[in-house]
Amino acid sequence: MSQPIAQELSQAQSIEAVLPVSSPNDSRPVTPYALDAVLSTARSRIAPLWPLQHFVAVNPFLGLSSERFEEACATMRRVAGADMLMSRAYYRTLLAEGRITKRDLAGALRRAESIPGAPKDLAELGRAIEVDPGSCDPIACTVADVVAHVHGHVASASVVEEISKWCAAYWDEGQAAWRMPWRSLPLYSAWRAASGLDRTPEVIGFHGFRDAIAALPDDPIDTIETILETLGVSGPALDLYLHRALFSVRGWVAYARYLGWSQELDGEADDAVSQLLAIRLAWDYALFRLHEEGPVGSAWTAAVRSMADSARAGAPPDRDLLIDGILQTAFELSFQRDLVEKLAAAPAAPAVTLMRAPVQAAFCIDVRSEVFRRALEAAAPAVQTIGFAGFFGFPIEYVPIGRQSGTAQCPVLLKPKFVVCEEVAEADEEERTEILGLRLLRRRAAKAWKSFKSSAVSSFVYVETAGLAFAAKLVGDATGITRTVTHPSADGLDPKVVSRIGPEIEPGTLAGRATGLTESQRIETAAGVLKAMSLTNGFARLVVLAGHGSTTVNNPHASGYDCGACGGNPGGANARVAASILNDPAVRTGLAERGIVIPADTWFLGCLHDTTTDGVTIFDRHEIPSSHASDLERLETWLTEASSLARAERAVLLDVPATVELDTAIVKRSRDWSQVRPEWGLAGNAAFIAAPRERTRGIDLGGRVFLHDYRWQQDDGWNVLELILTAPMVVASWINLQYYGSSVNQEAFGSGNKVLHNVVGTLGVLEGNGGDLKVGLPWQTLHDGERLVHEPLRLSVLIEAPSDQIDAILKKHDAVRELVDNGWVHLFALTQGGRSCLRRTGEGLWVT
Length: 848
Hints:
Elements: H1 5-10, H2 32-44, H3 69-80, H4 88-96, H5 102-112, H6 122-129, H7 143-151, H8 155-170, H9 187-195, H10 200-203, H11 209-214, H12 220-231, H13 237-248, H14 250-259, H15 261-265, H16 272-291, H17 295-313, H18 319-344, E1 359-363, H19 367-379, E2 384-387, E3 396-399, E4 407-409, E5 418-424, H20 429-454, H21 458-466, H22 471-479, H23 495-498, E6 501-504, E7 508-510, E8 513-515, H24 519-532, E9 542-549, H25 572-582, H26 585-593, E10 603-610, E11 616-618, H27 629-654, H28 662-670, E12 687-690, E13 705-708, H29 719-726, H30 728-744, H31 746-749, E14 757-760, E15 764-767, E16 795-799, H32 803-812, H33 814-821, E17 825-831, E18 836-840, E19 846-847
Parallel strand pairs: 1-2, 1-9, 3-5, 9-10, 12-13, 12-16, 16-17
Antiparallel strand pairs: 3-4, 5-6, 7-8, 10-11, 14-15, 17-18, 18-19
Helix pairs in contact: 2-13, 5-18, 7-17, 9-16, 12-16, 13-17, 14-16, 19-27, 24-26
C-alpha cells in the first residue's frame, strides 16, 4: 500500500538526485497527443463556478461522477486529504437520537456485504462505530507542498496567494480602480509578461524566481510539457499530480471552467483552465529549480514514486472510509423509509370530479415552493397547485433597458434559445429615448461618484466633508426601513417607470440579433410547456405562473437564493413571457389545432414568489380582463393567507420571536444588512418526486422535496419523462450535492464564514483578505450556530413511471446513468399509485 507523502519524505534523504519514475513505462515522455487527453481529463476534474451576478448551485463532484461515490471519496482523500463524509461523531449522535436505527444499519450493511473488509455483522459494526478514525494525509502533492514540508516554509499558501491575486486582477469585472495593463493578452502570456517585472516572489524568499520563469516556453501547452518532463512526472503519477495541482487553486480553476462552459456546450474547446494550469505548474517548476540540489529534490523523487505506486495499485482498502460510508447509507435509508411511509399512509386520491378548479397555480419545483404550495392548498382547498421548472420552459436571454446583452434565464445546462428585451409599456419612441438616456446618465453619475469616494485622494476627506449628509440614509438602512442599495432591476429608473416595465415578445432586432418570438415559435414552445406540465385540459379561469426570487441586502451570494432554473436570476421575466404567450389568441388557435383547447375565459397570470418574505407579486394587472375582477380579488385573499401560513412555518427555523408581528419581522429581515440568514434557501433538500400532485397533497414534506408534476399516462413517446430525467432531476442533484459538499467539508467544498467574506472582482469571494477564490455555500447557509440545518443526504429521486421506460432513457444518456448507477443519487420507481416503490441498484436491477 502506498505511503502518505509525509512518511515518504522522511525516507528520501538517501536519494541524491531527482530521477524519472523507475518503471520504463512511467518515464516515457508525454506525447502531444497523449498530453491533450491528459489535460482534458484534468480540466474535467474541477466543477465550474458561476460568478456572483448569477451564482447557481453546481455539483462540486462533477468531475468525479464517472466513479462510484465510494471511489470518489477515496480519490478526494488521495488527492487532497479531503473527506466527503461526515465525522464519526456526527453519525453516533444520529444513532443516539434514534435518527438511525438498527434496521437502517442492517440495510446498509447488506448493501456493503460484498466489499472486502466490511463488518460481518451488526456487533462488529457497532464496535467500529465507537472508534474515531485518525487523520488522512493525501498521497498526491505538488512541489510547493514538498518545499513547505521540508523547509517549514509557507510555500503552498504563498503560491496560492500569488496566483489568486493575479487571477483577481486579470479577470476583474470592474471592481478594481486601476485595471491591469496586460488584460489584452491570453492569461498565461499576460502572467509571464508581468512575472518579469514582479519582485514579490523574491521578497517572500524565492530568489531567482524570475529567471526560472523566463526560461519557460511562450506557449502554455509547451510549458506544461516541459515542466512535466523536468519534474519527472509521467505515466501513472500524472493524473494524480495534475488533479492535485488544479485542486490547490480550485476556486480560480472553477471560474476558468465557467468561462469555457458555454463554448463546451457548443462543442468548442476552451483553454482557460490549461493556461491557469501552466501558471500553477510554472510555480512548481521555479520552486523545483531553486531547491533541486538539496533535500527537496530527493523528497520530490519519493513523492513522484508514491503517486505512481498509488495510481498503479488503485485506492487501497480504507476501513474507516468503509465504516463511514455504511453509516451515511444508513442515514439515507432512514430518510427514505420515513418518506415512503408518508406516501403510503397518504389519503387515497379523490375521485375524478368534473368540477372546474377556480385557480391553478404553477410554482417552481424548488423545495421552498413545497411550503407555499401546501399553505395555498390549506387556505384554498379548491385550488390546484402544479410543480414545474421555474423558467417555465422558456429558455430566454432577458435584456434590460439600456443593455446590448442580458442574463440567461434558463438552467445552466441549456443555452438561451430566444432573446427577449425589456420595454416600457405604452411608451412612444420619444419617451423610450428619454428613459434610456436618463438611465445611462444616472448610471454614469453613480459610477463617477463611486470612483470619487474610493479614489486615492478624495477618500481621505470624503467622510469629514460629507459624512453627516448620509446620517438619515445610514439610520434607514441600519433599521431596515430603506434598502442599502437600489435593486438592480430598478437601477437608474423612476418608480413610475419601473411599474410599467415588462418583456417585449414581438419580433425585433438588437445589435444585429433577432429578438422576441415568432408566432410559430410561440405555438411550438407553448405546446411543449403545457405537455411537460401535464396541463393540457381542465384549465381554470385563472392560471398562476409563479416564478420565484428573493429579497436580501449586503449579501454577495444573493443570486444563490434566486431561481436556479433561471440561471441564478428571479423567475418573474420567464413567468411573464409564458403568461403573455399563453394569453395570445393566435397561440391558442395554434394550440387548439394540436389538441390543446384553452377556454376563452382562461387567463394566465405572470407572478413572482419572493422566497424571503413569502409575498407574491402579480404582474401586468392592467391586462387582466374586467370579467375576472372578482376572481382576482378572491385569489389575492388566498395568496395573502397562504403567505402568512408559509411565514409562520419558516419563522420557526429562522428563530423569529413569537412575540413580534410576524409579517413585519420577516420583511425587516430581508432589508437588514447585518442579517447573515435572511432565509434558509434550499437547506434541507433531500428528495425529488415526479408524480401527480395527489400522491403528495396533504403531506407535510417539510420543505425538503423538489416536487414536479408528472402523469406518465399522458406522456406519448416518453418525451416528458426523458426531459425530467435529463434536466430537472440533474439540476436538483447539482443543488443537492452542492449543499451536501458544503456541509460535509467546508474547507474543500464550501465558502467559509460569510462574515469574513470580501468580494473580489465582482466575481466571487475570498475568506478574509487573501487565499483562493471560495467555492460552494457559506457556513451560515447551512448551520444555525448550534447545529446543521442542512442534513447531508444524497438526493432520493422518486418517479411514478414504468421502470422499463426509465431504464430505456438511462441507456440513452450516459451522464445521467452515471449519477444513478454510481450512487450519486438514489432512484426509485413509484408503483401502486405511489403506495410502494422499487429501488434501482448500481447494477441496473430494480428491487423492493
